[in-house]
Amino acid sequence: MTATTSATAATATDGDQAPTTTCDDTLDFQPALPVDRDWIKKLILEHSSNPCNGKGLVVAPMVDQSDYPFRLLCRRYGANVSFTPMMNAGLLVRQQSYKEKFLPRQQHANDRPLIAQLAGHDPLILEQAAKLLLPYVDGIDLNCGCPQGIAKRGFYGAFLLEDEQVLLKCVKHLVKTISKPVTVKVRVLPEGDDASLRLYHKLANCGIHLLTIHGRTRHQLHVQTGKADWNIIQRTVQELGHRIPIFANGNIGSYDDVQRCLDETGVDGVMSSEALLEYPALFDATAMRMGRIQMAKEYLLLAKQYPPQIGHQGSGIKCLKAHIHRFLHPDLESAFNSTDHILRQRVAQAADWQVLWDTVEFIEQKQKQEEHKVEEEELSWYMRHRITVTDAHGNLMTALELKALSDTGAKLAPKYLEDHCGDDEQDPADMGHSLFTAGGGDDDGDY
Ligand SMILES: Cc1cc2nc3c(=O)[nH]c(=O)nc-3n(C[C@H](O)[C@H](O)[C@H](O)COP(=O)(O)O)c2cc1C
What we know:
This protein is of the alpha/beta class.
């Protein structure tokens, strides 16, 4: 695989844009691990069967969806860096069952580099949680992207970005006390690019080892997801790329997008979430399309071997059902006819692995009867908030909204756009998996 990078974007100091803040890169404290600009590249080259010139092809942190068996499947098809699902630092420190779910028994040689993601706002709790994870991972990430109600109430994720004092205190404390790389995943600030860049400089000045930028603000969620902005990512690479590696997140729906993103922004890696959930072979450079049935079966077999619970970082059957729904979204959603409706119910109500396996085999038979062509498969789950259609009254809405209206006959209530409630000590994976409702709820990918 080749991954080209445009010289202009990659040469951070050559940018004709003046730095947004003065670059004070002297730390006023002793970091536990000084920044080695190429640390992630070195790990990729050392551990991955798909080195991609040291460029990261990254499985995003995903609550209840970047479980170990899913990460293995993505790595089988080209991914070379993974993030764990976000873990609530307070729960990890205090709750035995939470520890059991998330702490692996061992560091898996076939799952490296792996970065564990934490959510929280208390420096000491974050430190304690990070130290529990350290033996099993290559780095610790702080979630500064989750825009959900649960993050607002728990004061973490994207809301931490808006309280600079607390944010920088947490980051500095982690950098000071954690002996492995500390990374931060951010969104763009609602105030705009310049304010965002100023904050990213401050994060770099705290000694972080890598920054992942999801090029959307926290207001871009659900039906308002829209396009991610790569310009801010490219500007950040120009201003900070010579000091720390930067990953881009957003707008990745195909391998061409991966290449384009690397070329246009000059980043060190490209992170994907929703498209990868639907098509785990997204990072595979070979032109051959893998069938969604094949993806579903391979995942189920891995999940049988490494159940996504106790140490494998998912919530059991709930996690499996969500994966199957995403792999087979077109089969489960198409045409709204009675057979598909029954299939959706079957997945939604599945109590064990075997029901899911049988359903996948049933769909496989159905595809054969319909002379389904794998090479014609396209992403459908990823596109649900990105394709707009016009309803009978000329209103512009996403395909998902239109489907909701036709399913229920009711207008979409404003509630649809509201956050679900939750508290600081709630496992985000326990927020209702309303995958089979039109709105999708908190598990709709808006983290
Ligand atoms: C099911 C799901 C769970 C997610 N959980 C997390 C999470 O735990 N931590 C996080 O930082 N982002 C989380 N996200 C957001 C993704 O990491 C990513 O930033 C976002 O989906 C945009 O990337 P995409 O355009 O490739 O989907 C989640 C997304 C989805 C779809």
